[in-house]
Amino acid sequence: ILQPTHTPTQKRHGTIAHASLNNLAIDLLVAGLVVIEYNKISHGGTHFESAHAILGLISYIFLLIQALVGFTAYFVPKLYGSVDNAKSLYKWHRLSGYIVLTLLLATVAAATQTTFNVQTLKIKLWAVLVTAVLVLVGVLPRIKKQKLGLGASKAPVSL
């Protein structure tokens, strides 16, 4: 959730909403994985042949790491030694979130080239790419470079 927050209460509510929506999304992705695996196993299908399957596996791994780091940094900061140490991970969590979003968009685009889509669903690659571009057009301008450590450089310290 990329909503500006100003007060500690807003930040906490934003974090809870962010975690809740992402957990719901991960739950739905896992449900999809279970359905696909059941189908593959019951029909003797092979695994990890398509770009979609490979990108999907990479996406699941990144999402798991992202969720674990995000959860522990915010809710269990002592795992990192201190709250400040945990907060130092926020910019990396944020940056990797943008990378994961891009990876997920690529995974969806790759799904259009699977046998099941080509023969049954017939979702067009161009439609997915247009949608992915629209998502990025909505997200990229909202990236706050300073929260990634890429903002205006600090003035030199005079001695």
From TrEMBL:
It holds the Pfam family Cytochrom_B561. Keywords: Electron transport, Heme, Iron, Membrane, Metal-binding, Transmembrane, Transmembrane helix, Transport. Coiled coil: none annotated. The keyword Transmembrane applies. Signal peptide: none annotated. It is found in: Membrane. The chain crosses the membrane at residues 21-41, 53-76, 97-117, 123-140. It comes from the Eukaryota. PROSITE patterns: CYTOCHROME_B561. Its cofactor is heme b. InterPro entries: CYB561D1/2, Cyt_b561/ferric_Rdtase_TM. It is a multi-pass membrane protein. Residues 1-149 form the Cytochrome b561 domain. One of its GO terms (cellular component) is membrane. Its main location: membrane. One of its GO terms (molecular function) is transmembrane monodehydroascorbate reductase activity. This is Cytochrome b561 domain-containing protein.
